[in-house]
Write a structure and sequence with these properties.
The protein is an all-alpha fold. The protein has 5 helices and no strands. Helix 1 runs antiparallel to helix 3 and helix 4 packs across helix 5. It is globular and about 45 Å long. The relative contact order is 0.08.
């Protein structure tokens, strides 16, 4: 099986008007999220037993899904995290799990 990886290089110029478009920022954020998810999915159980590796992966996931950078994962951010981490799980099951945790 071949794995394809898309790499995006962004160049910012120092001008009064930024050349980076909203579309480019969104696209880079999606690439960062997908890479963080892939890193967690590809981590071995041995890697996850190492507290430094485990914490690093979790902090990275937190950072890319804490969209408002508020230091907390709100409901929308958690839903996005769960749906991206587990795309095969029905949306309703994720909603039920989130309601159960909120109790």
């Amino acid at each position: 099986m071949l794995d394809w990886k898309l790499t995006l290089t962004l160049t910012l110029t120092l001008t009064p008007t930024p050349t980076l478009t909203l579309h480019q920022v969104y696209f880079k954020a999606m690439l960062d999220r997908n890479q963080a998810i892939d890193d967690v999915h590809n981590a071995t159980s041995e890697m996850m037993r190492d507290p430094k590796v485990h914490m690093g992966l979790m902090k990275r996931l937190f950072g890319v899904f804490d969209v408002d950078h508020g230091g907390e994962i709100d409901g929308k951010e958690m839903r996005a995290l769960m749906m991206n981490m587990h795309p095969h799980v029905p949306r309703g099951a994720i909603s039920l799990a989130m309601l159960e945790v909120a109790r």
